[in-house]
Amino acid sequence: MLELRLVQGSLLKKVLDAIKDLVNDANFDCSATGFSLQAMDSSHVALVGLLLRSEGFEHYRCDRNISMGMNLNNLAKFLKCAGNDDIITIKADDGSDTVTLMFESPTQDKIADFEMKLMDIDSEHLGIPEAEYHAIVRMPSAEFSRICRDLSSIGDTVLISVTKEGVKFSTRGDIGTANVVCRQNTTVDKPEDATIIEMNEPVSLTFALRYLNSFTKASPLSNTVTISLSSELPVVVEYKIAEMGYVRYYLAPKIEEDDEETKP
Amino acid sequence: MGIKGLTKLLADNAPKAMKEQKFESYFGRKIAIDASMSIYQFLIVIGRSGTEMLTNEAGEVTSHLLGMFSRTIRLLEAGIKPVYVFDGKPPDLKKQELAKRYSKRADATEDLNDALKTGNKEDIEKFSKRTVKVTKQHNDDCKKLLRLMGVPVVEAPSEAEAQCAALCKADKVYAVASEDMDSLTFGASRFLRHLMDPSSKKIPVMEFDVSKVLEELNLTMDQFIDLCILSGCDYCDSIRGIGGLTALKLIRQHGSIENILENINKERYQIPENWPYQEARRLFKEPSVSTDDEIELKWTAPDEEGLISLLVNENGFNIDRITKAIEKIKVAKNKSSQGRLESFFKPVAGASVPAKRKGTRCTLAIPKPVVNPKMYSLEASFHSKPKAIGSIGLPSVDLGSRQAMVFYRSLCCGI
């Protein structure tokens, strides 16, 4: 038996908007500690990890670990039926092939329930080792989103380099080049507007902007974004969900090929 | 031709060894492809109407070039790194099979002439397809084309399938793509079917994992080879009256062909005289392949001028289309430098398995859009037809047959 009650129903809508561009089908795993998801995009270049801890729900009951396979576009169709202030309750019986979504209006004068069919999804879980990152950048999520959007109109890939000077995003395309440098800035009115750079070693890596752009769909979840970079590892782009968990994206870098291979 | 009925046998008895994958998920992977098989398919399918073929000004057939060119671009665009392997000299044992095909082709030529006389269009098309033969010229044309495209070409000393499998075993490529189930018998660790089906068909790629096949069937590799020989392979006749399922039963019971021959009822099953099963087994186990470390697989930039001269000047392709296609190759080249997550994070074995709610859920949930309720009813009627299923046991049917259905739509294509 699974029963989760989330007062802030709009949160679930935002979470779904943040992941449905990247993956079509995914398993939601529920355990006593929380509600989580791990899924890769179809070309296995990017991975999204979601965690909503049980403490963040008004009511959380999960007797047995269950994994619910859903088509995210279908789930989005259901969640569209929920108002932004609605309280969402997710219910599933053990061994059932459906999940029930219940939407209650804040004034309790309207209750709607929906039953969605589940599907069997064969997916691999990747083990993500804890790692020390060479550089960690924390910046306003709107700023990051803006940079990715702007650069993608000029080029396909972005070179992210972190030095003592700050973090630099650069791209190159048929029409020209672009560089955006963000310096450390902690003298701001609101703490979420700060740009904080922790660097152990300078690092620079190239990524496909297409993926970063779909990561920025998570911006409504959090005012700040944390970008962790290491030269041997995929970049981690994390949006924290207040008091509940996070949405984390992992993206494999572009590989520099040997000179030999690029010669004709 | 491959192994008779192996797909179905595996679908019913080792469903876990097969996985549906998306075409895109092979991004960045190196894949070995049996070129001769592909060329054959192109000659049959592309640009054919009646006995007319796609030709250049000199009247030489160019279907294979067009096919090879567009298919390779499709793979490159998906970030896949193809390696084409060409057949060498066929092993002696295959000569019998080849002679059979030759005579079939001769029959087809006769039938074609008859059909031409009577003017039956369907027959003309049918028989002219059967007269198709891949010549050395076709092979050489394709090799030249691929080299100009910057795609590596490997020439096998003997069977291309065996060489593909060897590349896969040596970890030089990620998987072997073919429609020919032989690859599994040759021991290719990962084998893909339908990788090169047109995307319009929407058939998912089917990935076979040979270690899982063995695990599920509970056989050793040697026993699996014996099973394939008994089911019917290219190298020797099989025993009349023994199909895949009986073969599996016998192998499980007796362990090897030798023991089976000792214990089997010889009056009921006629064993061919001088049955060369040991030779066939040797061909599968130790095929003549080049295991040189010198085989270097390199994907290079396309030779633009060379391609234009070959395709446009010599074979009359439209220059605009070819230049556009070359542009596509160049873009794809850049794309293939994207890394895959698996090279950083390793899959955790069985992490999602304990979370499954019910063992029998496959029949309840609708797993993929390919399987709609209509197909279930089809499936039901399929299973009620005793002729089609023979003596298949029912236990694994719910999962297995779903995959089997997908297979029945596969290309029935033999060389």
UniProtKB/TrEMBL annotation, chain A:
Keyword Nucleus in the entry? The reply is yes
Q: Which GO terms describe its cellular component?
A: nucleus
A Gene Ontology biological process term = DNA replication
Q: Which NCBIfam families match?
A: pcna
Instruction: Show the GO MF annotations.
Output: DNA binding
Q: Which PANTHER family match?
A: PROLIFERATING CELL NUCLEAR ANTIGEN
Give the subcellular location.
Nucleus
Q: Where is the Proliferating cell nuclear antigen PCNA C-terminal domain?
A: 127-254
Family note: Belongs to the PCNA family.
Q: Which Gene3D superfamilies match?
A: 3.70.10.10
Q: What is the designated name of this protein? A: DNA sliding clamp PCNA
Judging by the UniProt lineage, the source's domain of life is Eukaryota
| Organism whose genome encodes this protein | Penstemon smallii
| Main function | This protein is an auxiliary protein of DNA polymerase delta and is involved in the control of eukaryotic DNA replication by increasing the polymerase's processivity during elongation of the leading strand.
Q: Does the UniProt entry include the keyword Nucleus?
A: yes
Query: Cross-referenced Pfam families, in alphabetical order?
Result: PCNA_C (PF02747), PCNA_N (PF00705)
- Proliferating cell nuclear antigen PCNA N-terminal domain: residues covered: 1-125
The record's keywords, sorted A to Z, are: DNA replication, DNA-binding, Nucleus
Automatic annotation (TrEMBL), chain B:
Q: Which residues form the XPG-I domain?
A: 147-219
Query: In which broad location class does this protein mainly occur, judging by the first location in its UniProt entry?
Result: nucleus
Which EC numbers characterise this protein's activity in its record?
A: 3.1.-.-
Q: Which GO terms describe its biological process?
A: base-excision repair; DNA replication, removal of RNA primer
- Where are the annotated coiled coils located? none
Give the matching SUPFAM superfamilies. Answer: 5' to 3' exonuclease, C-terminal subdomain, PIN domain-like
Paste the cofactor note: Binds 2 magnesium ions per subunit. They probably participate in the reaction catalyzed by the enzyme. May bind an additional third magnesium ion after substrate binding.
What GO CC annotations are associated with the protein? Answer: mitochondrion; nucleolus; nucleoplasm
Q: Which of UniProt's keywords are assigned here?
A: DNA damage, DNA repair, DNA replication, Endonuclease, Exonuclease, Hydrolase, Magnesium, Metal-binding, Mitochondrion, Nuclease, Nucleus, Phosphoprotein
Q: Could you state a single Gene Ontology molecular function term?
A: 5'-flap endonuclease activity
Domain (XPG N-terminal): residue spans on this chain: 1-108
| Family per record | Belongs to the XPG/RAD2 endonuclease family. FEN1 subfamily.
The UniProt function text for this chain reads: Structure-specific nuclease with 5'-flap endonuclease and 5'-3' exonuclease activities involved in DNA replication and repair. During DNA replication, cleaves the 5'-overhanging flap structure that is generated by displacement synthesis when DNA polymerase encounters the 5'-end of a downstream Okazaki fragment. It enters the flap from the 5'-end and then tracks to cleave the flap base, leaving a nick for ligation. Also involved in the long patch base excision repair (LP-BER) pathway, by cleaving within the apurinic/apyrimidinic (AP) site-terminated flap.
Q: Which PANTHER family match?
A: FLAP ENDONUCLEASE 1, FLAP ENDONUCLEASE FAMILY MEMBER
Q: How is this protein named in the record? A: Flap endonuclease 1
Source organism of this protein record: Penstemon smallii
